[in-house]
Amino acid sequence: MTRRLLAIRVIVVLVALLGINYVVWRWLFSVAWDAWWIAVPLVLAETYSLIDSLLFGLTMWRLRERGEPVPPPPGRTVDVFITTYNEPVEMVMETALAARDITYPHSTWILDDGNRPEMRAAAEAAGIGWITRSSDWIGMPRHAKAGNLNNALLSTEGEFLLILDADQVPLPEILDRTLGYFNDEQMALVQTPQWFKNVPARDPLGSQAPLFYGPIQQGKDGWNAAFFCGSNAVIRREALMQLGIARYAAEVEEGVHRALRTARTVLRHAMESTGPDDHQVRGALAEVLHDVGRAQRALDRGEALFDVTYRFQQRVAAVRRSLVAADLEALQADLAIIAELEAGLDDASAPALDARVHDHAQDGLTVLPEDPYAMPDALDALAARDWSPLGAVQGVEALVAAVDVGRSGEAQPIMPLATISVTEDMATCMRLHGMGWRSAYHDEVLAHGLAPEDLPTMLTQRLRWAQGTVQVMLRENPLTQPRLTWTQRLMYFATMWSYLSGFAAIVYIAAPIVYLVFGVLPVQAFSVDFFLRLVPFLVLNQLLFAVVANGRPTWRGQQYSLALFPVWIKSFTSAFGNVFLGRSLDFAVTPKTRREDQGNRWDLVRPQLWAMGLLVAAAVIGLVRLAVGQATALGALVNIGWVLFDLLIFSVILQAVRYRPETEEPAAAPPRPVPVLVGAGAPLDVETRIALSVRPRETAAPSPTTPATTPTGTGLDRSHPPTGTAEQVHEHDTGDRR
Amino acid sequence: MIDIDVETLADGVGVVRPHGRLTMVAARRMRELLADLVAAGSTRVVVDLSATEFMDSSGLGAIIAGLKTARQAGGDLRLAAVTEPVMAVLQLTNMDRVLRARPSVEEAFRD
């Protein structure tokens, strides 16, 4: 164990003990129950922050610095994928030409979801492959970037894939530095940092994520949970394909079970509405009902699913043919519904699905809702409908077909990249880990990207990431994934947990205001006991932070983790509404390129401005109350200090609104990896080399002061940018909007 | 590039027989071959794996794509004579629970 890691572990243990000591004491002895309406939220918020801090400590416990990678084995086949939708052709070509010039032998492909002739011409002129969606995708759910990659996977054949966003210009050595990790046959993924070249040193929009692409990823790596972040990563094709097939098998099985149950209900309804004298029709329905039962029993016995569904479909088809004469008039009404059903369980039969269907503005294709989440609603709606007998039989046929072997509602039966979230990377990676694959984080900048350059785009991008993460948490909660280790579950959970901080932030803003204005104290007293428990904890927490960051700038990240509280709250409420209530995620459309200057967009940060105004007003009122003898000096001072700290945090918002990229020089390029051999071949020690090869240091980064507002949390896990800039990459992700 | 034999039996059943290693390198050809076979009217297809020494997930993916094509045309695709390494891939992905392999080509469409 290195000395640094030892120091980290000692501090982690101390922070945990002090933190638990403080919060337990708070709950048992110091909640001012008389003022429960502020006291209970505050102690809950503090508990939230303690858990955040404990998860951070666990992450740091096994911080893994991988050092110099082993050389790549010769003769592996690699496909380099550049995903694009509507970015300027010149931008894509800059990336593509750099990708073509990567030293290790490979094939380069532009995955052009926009299907643009000029993009194709430029690619072909440069001798670069061009792939667009196959005809299988017409009228099917597009699944945005995940769909784009899934499509390309089927028309290429390299053993490894390097995935790059359109703006992530790779360095020539990117494959030489990463392929060696795959000598481990169980290694599925190697992620490298995302670093942005168009960001000034003071990073006004908080674009760089030096803690996430550094200690946090390295900590996760120690528990075999390094995240896939959507770009600048190399993936083993076999791992992705295996994942896709296993998901296919599981989803088909679950879908057929569910469809058969619904079929039963549909048929029963139909029988009830059939006259008792209509022997032929009743007989036919009974026959199909019998077949449903047989199919269910066969599945329960463990018979192979595709055999069961094949037999079932054949028999139902035969019954349907015998019924054709019956009830023609009622059939007319059903035909429209069946057509929609066969087209992938459209929205008309399930109003809840309306929100999930929208017109693809660019190419006019209707994007259909996605299985499997669309299924329960659609099935319920079908079951509730009154069917004619023939309609019922045909409906049952279509029901089973929709989820059967062919997955008629999807362009491809196999979808290796997860489509359950607007950010496909985290869900895919979690599933890979669940199948026993390994991942690695290689801490060396090997591509230079572009970050959003204005506040509206930045806000949209952060909201998108947060929504994606919360979606995954609500749909596939890592804590309940049986095949992950407990620490892997906690590593995923830690990132998701950090996005809940918006709710805690409101309490941390409200508490000092309530005290200063109304004199209501949420703790029993600002006693010696209180400070003796809290202060050492805060100090140690900051010390851990400083040791972990090891000189990397962290202040910007701390500011944004609190200052963007409205974004975090919106991400949670919108993702909750989306997952459980079927609502649209409803995010704003981001511009394609840097938008025209719209002036200072104060309207986008109204909640923050209100918070700042209230904090200032509360401080003034508090001072007046102190002057007239209505408040104690200690209480007023502590809370005014708290207010000042909050204002310091929020000050970043004022900078961000006024930021104009033209006026500032970008930061220097990150140091290139230093030649490792020194003198007579003595390698630099690993820590030195990594320290030299990581991103630039910000000179102006102050060491963070005690965050009185977030007594325990770090809140920085969330600064996880899974992929490139919003306007360049995620614009077309609206295909995943539900 | 591996050999993939294709023949059509007297009863109209198409038989596809990959030799050697059915991997990502051959997956696309396998998929196209199955699609062509179905398009030419052989909606009942047997993939004979007796000569397949190894298959990866991409190879299996091509077979699943073929299965979809066959089912959509009203037919079916069956596996026959699966070797041990191929069976291992089916088990790893739980595909053995949904897709039952038949002992031989002759028995593939007997039920």
Please provide a brief summary of the model:
The complex is a heterodimer of chains A (738) and B (111). Chain A is α/β, with parallel strands linked by helices and 738 residues long. Chain A has helices at residues 3-30, 36-61, 89-100, 117-125, 144-153, 212-222, 237-272, 279-300, 305-323, 328-342, 374-384, 389-403, 424-434, 455-475, 486-498, 501-518, 528-549, 555-563, 565-581, 606-627, 633-658, 686-693, 726-730, and strands at residues 78-84, 107-112, 129-131, 160-165, 169-170, 187-191, 195-196, 233-236, 358-359, 366-367, 438-441, 447-449, 677-678, 682-683.
Would you kindly provide a written description of the structure presented here, covering whatever features stand out?
The complex is a heterodimer of chains A (738) and B (111). Chain A is an alpha/beta fold. Chain A has a domain at 257-403. Helices cover 52% and strands 7% of the residues of chain A. Chain A has helices at residues 3-30, 36-61, 89-100, 117-125, 144-153, 212-222, 237-272, 279-300, 305-323, 328-342, 374-384, 389-403, 424-434, 455-475, 486-498, 501-518, 528-549, 555-563, 565-581, 606-627, 633-658, 686-693, 726-730, and strands at residues 78-84, 107-112, 129-131, 160-165, 169-170, 187-191, 195-196, 233-236, 358-359, 366-367, 438-441, 447-449, 677-678, 682-683. In chain A, strand 1 (78-84), helix 3 (89-100) and strand 2 (107-112) form a beta-alpha-beta unit. Chain A is globular and about 95 Å long. By secondary structure, chain B is of the alpha/beta class. Chain B has one domain (4-102): STAS domain (Transcription Regulator spoIIAA, 2-Layer Sandwich). Helix content of chain B is 37%, strand content 26%. Chain B contains 3 helices and 7 strands, in the order βββαββαβαβ. In chain B, strand 1 and strand 2 form a beta hairpin. In chain B, helix 1 packs parallel to helix 2. The radius of gyration of chain B is 12 Å and the shape is globular. Chain A binds chain B through residues 154-155, 157-159, 237-238, 241-242, 244-246, 248-250, 252-253, 302-307, 310, 404-408, 412-414, and chain B through 24-25, 27-28, 31, 56-58, 60-61, 64-65, 67-68, 71-72, 76, 92-100, 111. Chain A: This is Glycosyltransferase. Chain A: The chain crosses the membrane at residues 7-29, 35-58, 490-518, 530-549, 609-628, 634-654. Chain A: Keywords: Glycosyltransferase, Membrane, Transferase, Transmembrane, Transmembrane helix. Chain A: Residues 699-715 have a biased composition (Low complexity).
